[in-house]
From TrEMBL:
It comes from Ramlibacter monticola. This is General secretion pathway protein GspL. Belongs to the GSP L family. It is found in: Cell inner membrane. SUPFAM superfamilies: Actin-like ATPase domain. It is a single-pass membrane protein. Residues 15-141 form the GspL cytoplasmic actin-ATPase-like domain. The keyword Chaperone does not apply. InterPro entries: ATPase_NBD, GspL_cyto_dom, GspL_pp_dom, T2SS_protein-GspL. Keywords: Cell inner membrane, Cell membrane, Membrane, Protein transport, Transmembrane, Transmembrane helix, Transport. One of its GO terms (cellular component) is plasma membrane.
C-alpha cells in the first residue's frame, strides 16, 4: 500500500502549477517527496493505495459550534444548520465557503467545523482529477486535536508559527508580536520546526525546536481520522472501492512483485486451454469412431449400398425392403396397422375411407370425440403406433416410421 499526499497550493491551481507532495508506503514513514506538475505526480501503488489532498493551515478557519439536537452528521439538513450557526461569524457569504465537520461529531454536542473557500477547493481537486490523481480524502495540515503543540513552518521570507491543541488552531506570522499571542506550553510539549525556519523560531520565540520536514508532517496529517471531503466533495464508499479496485488491478498488471503471480496465471490458463483441446479432440475421435462403426455395420450387412449418406436411415430402408422380399411381417404392413386400429376403435366405429401410403394409414370419417381420440391414441401408442387427427381423419403410423 502507498499513499500520495498532495499539498494544495494557496493560489488557484492550473496545469502549470507545481504541487508539493509526499509519498509513504506504510502510512507512517516518509519514502519520497518533491514538487512537480500534477500530471507528473507519482501514482500510488498497491492494495488500499490512495491520494490524499492536504489543505494548508493558511487556507482553513476553525469554528466551534453546538450542533442542534436531531441533526445527524451526514444529514441533508446539516449544511443548512451549519450555515445558520456560522452566518454571523463568516466574512464571506455562506454559499462561497465549504464546511467540514470533525470526525465523531454528535448531535447536541460541541464540535469543530473547518471552513475554506469553496471555489478554490473545487478548482484544486478538479486539476488533480484531470491529471489522473483523484483525491479520495481531504485532510487539514493542522487540526484542533491532541495535546498542545507548536510548529514553525514556511520559508525565511514568510515564516509562520502554528499552535494547535484540542482548543483550536492558531497560525501567526513568525515575529516578535507572535510571542505575546501564543498560548503557554508545558516544558515537554512538542515543538517542531522546518529546517529553513528553525533558527529563526528559536531566536524569536526563545524556545528549543526539533527539526521536522514539511513532507513528514503531511504524512502524519494523512494518518489522522480527519476527512474534509464532505457534502458536495464527499467520496462515497462505492467510489472509494472502485478506485481501490482500479489501483489494485493496475498494480497486479504492472508491478514487478506480481510478476510470478502473472506468469502463474498465464500458465494456468494455458494448461486449461490445452486440457480443453485434448478433451475436445478425444470426444471428436470417439464420435468419429461411432459413426464409422455405424457405416461399417451398414456396408457389411448390406453390401449393395456403395455410398453412405445417412447410415441409420439407409439401414432402416434396407431392412424394410428385406422384409418385403422375404415376406416377414412388419409393424408397417397394412394388415398390421389395420389390425391394431380395429382392436382399439370404439364399438360401432368404422372408417368411411382408408388410404395407405406404405408408411402411414389415413382412416377417414372417424369424427372421434376428444375423450375417444385420447383413449385410441394411448392404446395405439402401447402397440407401437403414433396417432394424430386431421379433422375427421385419423392418421396412424408405426413409431419407427415417424
Amino acid at each position: 500500500m502507498s499513499t500520495l499526499v498532495v499539498s494544495l497550493p494557496l493560489e488557484n491551481a492550473s496545469n502549470a502549477t507545481e504541487w508539493a507532495y509526499a509519498v509513504t508506503t506504510d502510512g507512517r514513514a516518509l519514502s519520497d517527496h518533491g514538487r512537480t506538475p500534477a500530471a507528473l505526480l507519482p501514482q500510488p501503488r498497491g492494495p488500499g493505495a490512495e491520494v490524499v489532498a492536504l489543505v494548508p493551515v493558511q487556507a482553513l478557519a476553525w469554528h466551534r459550534v453546538d450542533l442542534p439536537k436531531g441533526i445527524v452528521p451526514g444529514s441533508p439538513r446539516l449544511r443548512t444548520a451549519l450555515e445558520g450557526l456560522l452566518e454571523e461569524q463568516l466574512l464571506d457569504d455562506t454559499e462561497a465557503v465549504h464546511f467540514a465537520l470533525q470526525p465523531g461529531a454528535r448531535a447536541g454536542e460541541r464540535a469543530w467545523v473547518a471552513v475554506c473557500d469553496r471555489a478554490w477547493l473545487r478548482n484544486a481537486l478538479q486539476v488533480l482529477d484531470a491529471a489522473g490523481r483523484p483525491a479520495s480524502r481531504i485532510v487539514p495540515e493542522f487540526a484542533p486535536e491532541g495535546p498542545p503543540a507548536l510548529a514553525a513552518i514556511g520559508d525565511p521570507e514568510q515564516p509562520v508559527v502554528v499552535a494547535s491543541s484540542e482548543e483550536g488552531v492558531l497560525n501567526l506570522p513568525l515575529g516578535p508580536t507572535a510571542l505575546a499571542l501564543l498560548p503557554a506550553l508545558a516544558e515537554g510539549a512538542p515543538r517542531l520546526a522546518e529546517p529553513a525556519v528553525a533558527g529563526l523560531a528559536e531566536q524569536v520565540l526563545q524556545q528549543k525546536f526539533a527539526l521536522q520536514q514539511a513532507p513528514q508532517r503531511w504524512v502524519d496529517a494523512a494518518a489522522t481520522r480527519w476527512d474534509l471531503a464532505q457534502f458536495e466533495f464527499a467520496s462515497s464508499p462505492r467510489a472509494r472501492t472502485l478506485r481501490k479496485l482500479a489501483t489494485g488491478s493496475g498494480e497486479v498488471l504492472r508491478a514487478a512483485s506480481w510478476r510470478p503471480a502473472r506468469w502463474a496465471a498465464v500458465a494456468l490458463v494455458l494448461v486449461h486451454l490445452a486440457g480443453l483441446n485434448a478433451w475436445a479432440w478425444k470426444e471428436r475421435a470417439s464420435l468419429s469412431a461411432k459413426h464409422e462403426a455405424v457405416r461399417r455395420t451398414l456396408t457389411d450387412t448390406f453390401p449393395q449400398v456403395k455410398v453412405v449418406v445417412d447410415a441409420p436411415v439407409q439401414m432402416e430402408r434396407e431392412v424394410a425392403a428385406l422384409r418385403q422380399q422375404t415376406g416377414v411381417a412388419s409393424a408397417r404392413d397394412l394388415d398390421a396397422v389395420l389390425g391394431a386400429l380395429a382392436a382399439v376403435l370404439p364399438p360401432g366405429r368404422v372408417p368411411a375411407s382408408l388410404q395407405y401410403s406404405g408408411s402411414e394409414l389415413r382412416a377417414g370419417g372417424m369424427a372421434l370425440s376428444p375423450n375417444e381420440l385420447e383413449q385410441v391414441s394411448a392404446q395405439l401408442k402401447a402397440l407401437g403406433y403414433g396417432t394424430s387427427a386431421e379433422g375427421s381423419t385419423l392418421v396412424v403410423a408405426a413409431e419407427d416410421a415417424r
